[in-house]
Amino acid sequence: MKNQTTKLKIRKGDLVKVIAGDSKGQQGKVQEVVVAKSRIIIEGVNLVSKHTKPNAANPNGGIIKKEAALHISNVMLVDPKSGKTTRVGRKLNADGKIVRVAKISGGEIK
User: Fold this and answer.
1) CATH of 8-78, one of 3.50.50.60, 3.90.180.10, 3.40.50.920, 2.30.30.30
2) Does an H or E element contain 39, and which?
């Protein structure tokens, strides 16, 4: 059996909105995409408390707030034109390159 990688429609730097889970309704920029697990980390969303030991960077240790990964199915891309959440399609542009397109406005996603 081959290892199949899925083509994800959300990339690093995209503005997304959480549509399910504890952080529902929040939106932020994608910091990281973990393709193998279909998970993403969003700036300032889904914060968890992490207990840290004292180290060089944090001499006192303590509890820090950190972003945790969300499953990619729980977020939706925010359309750059209309500001609403949208599904993502793929289309050939004038140069013959495949680009991502917002289903709501039909505009290209950069």
Assistant:
1) 2.30.30.30
2) strand 39-42
